[in-house]
Amino acid sequence: MTSDITLGMAEMFRDANRESVTLELRTPQDWDRFNEIKDMAKQHEREETEFFQREKPLLLAEARKELIDKAGSLTLEHPSPFGTDRFNKDTIERQAHMQVGNDHQARLLGIKARESDGYAELREDIQAREGVRDHAREAFARSTDRRDGQDRRMPSRDR
Q: What's the predicted TM-score (pTM) here?
C-alpha cells in the first residue's frame, strides 16, 4: 500500500538524483541520454495519469466484482460473526476506491524508480569513463615524482 508520503519521497529522491547527475554531465551524448531518460519518464507518467482518468470507472467495476466474489466465496477460515454483512455496499465501494488508487500510485512509484535507476546507470557509465581518464593521469603523476635523493625512494602516501 503506497501513500502520498511515499510518492513524495520518491519524487524527492529522483530530484536529488537528477541534480547530482547533472553536475557530472560532460559530453553532448551524456546530455542527450539524460534528457531522454527525463522525457521518457514524463511521457510514461502522463500516459499513466491519462489511463487512470480514462479507465477509472472500469477499474472500479472490476475491483468491486473481485471484492464481491471474494466476500461470497467459500473459505475454510473461521466464519464471520452472526449479523456481519460481508456484502456491505459502502465497505466494498471504499475498498474498491482504495485498491484502485493504491494500484495507480504503485505504478507511478515504479515509473519514478525506473527514472532514478536510469540516472544511476548514467552516473555509473560516466564515472567508469572518467575513471579511465583519471587513472592515466594518476599513473603519470606517480611516474614523474620529482623528489630528491632519499625522499624519492620512500613510498609516497598515494601508493
A: 0.73
For position 155, what pLDDT does the model report?
A: 65
Count H helices and E strands in the chain, helices first: 4, 0
pLDDT of amino acid 154 = 63
**Residue 84 in 3-state DSSP?**
coil
Identify which of 119, 105, 124, 123 has the alpha carbon closest to the alpha carbon of residue 9.
105
Pick the closest to residue 114 from 38, 30, 35, 49 (CA basis).
38
Amino acid at 52: F
Closest CA relative to residue 159, chosen from 149, 131, 145, 134: 145
Quote the pLDDT of residue 91. 87
Cell matching residue 33: 541520454
Q: How crowded is residue 51: how many other Cβ atoms within 10 Å of its Cβ?
A: 13
State how far the Cα of 69 lies from the Cα of 66, in Å rounded to an integer: 5
Whose grid coordinates read 519518464?
A: 41
Can you tell me the mean pLDDT for 13-19? 90
